[in-house]
Each structure stands twice: as C-alpha cells, then as structure tokens.
Amino acid sequence: MKNRPTKCVAQDAKFDDDDAVWKWTLTSQAVAPCYILDVHKMEKHDNKSKEFFWLGRVPCRFVKLVGRLVGIETQETKNKIVYTCTGGSKFYDLDDGTATIECIQRIRPAPLLPSKAETSANPSEQPRDSRPIGFLGSTAEVIGKVSAWGRGERMITIQEISECPSNSEPVHWRLVKELHCSRYSASIAEPFVVPKEPVASPAVASPAVVPGPSRILRADVQQDSVVVSSAKGKGVVRCQTPQAQSYGPEEPQSPSRHRLRHPARLRNRELTANTFRIYLKYYMDETLLAESIANEQGTEGDPEIPTNCLRRSAEGKRPRLPRMPGEDAPPQKRRRGNSEPPPELDEKDPLAFTLSNLRRVPVLKLMAGRVVAAEIKRRGRAESEKLRCAAAGANASRRPQPSVAKSVPSSRPSSLEGVSRKAKLLFHWAIIELLKEGGIVLWDGPRRAVDDGTSAEDEQKLWKAERSTADATGASLASDLTTTTTTTATANRMDSRAGSGASRSLATAAADALLAGEYPVSDPESDEEAYLPLTPALLAPRVRDAIENLMARPAHHRSDLTREHRRARGPPPGPTIPAILAHLRRDDRWKWLGEWHVEQAIELLTARKLVYSPLPGRWEVFDFVPSACLHLS
Fold first, then answer.
1. How far is CA 132 from the centre of its chain?
2. What pTM, to 2 d.p., does this model score?
3. What SS3 class is residue 600?
4. 18-108+135-183 to CATH, choices 1.10.10.10, 2.40.50.140, 3.30.300.10, 3.40.710.10
C-alpha cells in the first residue's frame, strides 16, 4: 500500500517580508518533491500579489511530481498554407495513487517548412514539441508551477516533463515520505531558513538572461536569508537582510564610455541647433547617472538608507548550501564575462528637469548663446551676399543702388531681451524634438528646483578630459571672442563699401553676452512641465503593470488574442509587444513611445526575473494570479 502524506498545517500568520520568500520560491532549491494530494492540500498565501503556497512549514511555488499518465489531450492550431503548428496546448492528467491533477504545457510555434510536399515526404522533420512525451499508462516526471483556478482547483503549468522508468515512482514515494518527516512537517521545532546570497561583483559576474521560469529552476540563484519560525502551527517570517527588487537608474557605466567635448571648444560650424539638442540630452543623461553614483557612495554602509544602484557585497563568497534531496541535475553555474550586469530597478523616481532649470545651467546657457550667435552670423553673411549680388546687378543695369540698411530685417536681435528670447526658443525646439523622437518623456513626479544645477567639480566630469576644462573654457572663449571681433571688423569694412550694416550687431553688447553666456533669463512660469530621459529602468515598471492589466482582462476583451486562444482551455497567454505599446500609448505621456523602448524594458525585466516568455512574442509576469482573470470573465 502506498504511503500517504501527513496532514499539512496552514501558515496563516502575517509575514514581515513576503517578497524575500516569494523570490526564493523561484529558485531551483525551492522545487519541492511531493504527492499530488499535497498539491491539493497546500494552503495559499494571503498576499494575492505574491502567489505561493505552504507545504507544511515550507513555502512552495514549483513542485516535482512522478506518476502515470491517465489522460492526454492536444489542442493545436496549424497554418493552412504550409500546415505547420502555430501554437496551442497539451493537457496531461497525472495520477500517483494519492490524487489526480491536470498539467498544461504550451506548444511553441514550429518553423515554417519549405513546402507542403516536403512536409508530407519527411514526417520525421515535423516538430516534436506538439507530440506527447509518452503514451497512456507510461510513467512521467513533471516539474511545474502550482496555480489556483476555479473554486479551489489546482493546476500545474509544466516547465519540464519527461518520460521515466516505472521504478522511478516508488523511489519518489520514499523520498517524499522522508521529506515529510524531516522538512515539510509543521511539528518540527527548528525554524525554516532561506539561504542568503552574496551579491556578485559587477566586474566579475554577469547574470544570464532568463527567458522563462524553466531557466530559473536550473539557475543557481540564492536569495536573502529569511527565517521562518513555527510556533503553535503559526508561521512567522523574519528577514535578516532584506533586499527587494527595485526600479531605478542604470548601473554606473565604465569610465571609458564616450564623452562629449565641452561646448566652449566647439567650432563655429559645429554650433547648430541639432548639436544643441544632442548636448541637452547628454547633459540630462549624465546628470542623472552622476547623481545615482553619488547617492550610492554617500549611503554606503548605512543600512537605513536605500541605495539606487546595485550594492556590492563586502562579505565575499559564502559556501553553497546543500541541494534539496531528490534533485538529479546539478544547478547551472552562472556565466562569467566582462559585460556589465543589467541595471537595478528602483521604485524611487529621480528628480525631473524643467525648462527654467535647464536654461539656468551655465554650460547649456553658454552653448545656447553661442548657437544663437553663430546662426545670426550665418544669416547676416547670407543677407550680405544677397545684397552684394543685387548691387552688382544694379550697377550692370545702371540702376540706382538699393539701400542696404532698409533691406535688413528688423526681427534680428539687437538687445539682450531679443537674445534671451532667441535662446529660449532654441530650448523649446530641442525639448519638442526630444519628445517626438522618444528621448525624453513628460513627468508629473518630483522636479528639481529652478536654480538646482551641477557644481563646477561635477561639471568637469561630464566632458571629455583632454585638458583642464576651466583652462580650455577660458582659452576657447578668449579665442572665440578675438576671432569674432576680427571677423566682425573685416565684415564691417566689406559691408561699408557696399553700404551694408548687416553684421554690426555681433559687435554690440548683445553679441558679447551671447558668447559669454551672460544674457538675462526670464522668470519661470507657474505651470511648467517637467521632463525625464526615457531609460529602460524608468519604463520597466510601467511595462510590467501593462502586462498585468492586459492579462487581467477577459479573453474576449483582448484584441491581441486569436480565436484559438479564446477557445483554448486554461488562462490565455500574455500580451505581445504591440499590445503592450498600444496599452501604454493611451496615456499622452507615452505618445511617442516606440516598440524598441518596450523591447529594451522587457529585456531588463527578463534579466531581473520579473517576466518571462511562455510563447514566442508573448510575455507574462511571474506573480500573476490566473484566478483573477477567471473571476473577471
């Protein structure tokens, strides 16, 4: 007679750190060999946003089952042109003698075959993913995620399934019986301890990209140390060193990254509106990155102040904990390389920039003035050339020479107010262009003060360090002013011969103020908008929320699902990237968002093990509750 499991005791207490326990349930060490009856008797955790179960005193999300296949059903969709599988699901009914449970496995689309004739002639080339792994009555080993649906029903979403010898079933029974006595039983006085993971150094280790939970089950990932003590059937979780997932700025880049030259060292032909747009975006990116590095260095060693960037462990490597009995394959080791780890995520948003704040940054104010001065000079030269051509034509036709002064437009700035207005229009144009190309986004969060700018020491770190920035700035400004004065005097002498005064405005105080960046700035407006550079770390939490919102909708309310997806059993698959983009674009803030932005954010979420791809082109979150979708429908 087969061994029956002992009665599981529910863990119905309030836990101090659900996130740390939930993250541990995603590792290979948390895969629990058990009976099918244990899956039906597991008590679901109270926190619906963190879905996991309690197998006695042990938190559990993924289980390992061994039993016989008593039911097999395949639902697949095929391409009518080349007759290849384009998706679907396989359903297995598994029975181990204690109970029966339904296991579902997604079918990946098969690659298109050259022709229907070759498909018929070569049946061995048909994709084996749509074929069952065995026949009725064969023994199978299943590793999958436990899900709750309907009224207390349980279902297994298969991550790994394989056919095994028939004697594997009694071996599994003996293992589960020992685990019930030594690990699962709630009567054990010793508290359950979740192993702690030392954070790897970014220069040594590079976490691998995890496309799905099957990779997580094989990854050698250890989480923070959490003690689960049991007293009178109640579980209490105490996290010793909590370190939750966070959304925040990117990891500090290497010192060899590309830097731009100081605006004072730019030549006149480089002083264009497009160059100013590039420098404006560069300043916003580098300022946020420098602030994140400064916050990390300023809060290092203070456990009460959270850091935005990934904190390196000072304790060094720790010995690996033994694997749970019954794991046949050793955990996969992390790949090491020279590439930088993906950026950390932090829920704390950085301070946004406003137009008044950017206009008062000395280096941007200087460059805006130089760009306006260069544009005035170009237009003056073009007008002078037109007037000289007109004068030459008049002399040839013996007509009176037109007055040059009357031909000069009156809209050219000849005062400090006009200079400030032109510079403000340049800032407006650059911000609008950055919004249209998706470089920055409107932000309604905390913003910077009007006079909040970078210090002189921090400003020197933003630019290419060929020589001292201060010396280079002074020398370049002196050279530019001398060159401008000489050019202006020469132009005035040439224009005086033709009766022209087109370039005389550059010799005034307004021209000197432009080149030195000392022109006045208007007062800030009361309803100013704020902007932030669009980065994967900033967009990642919004993409994750969009995936959850789309998955929570009923199947008949989702336009990205096909008719086969709506008719299939079980919860529908996650949304596609175009569906996520369309959901985000309903907010005007993400109006100019592109698919490449969503792809970069999903890559970051995948690297942080927050989302996975059950089917090619579709994405789901790990902590999504399938029953929520069923209740809504």
1. 37
2. 0.46
3. helix
4. 2.40.50.140
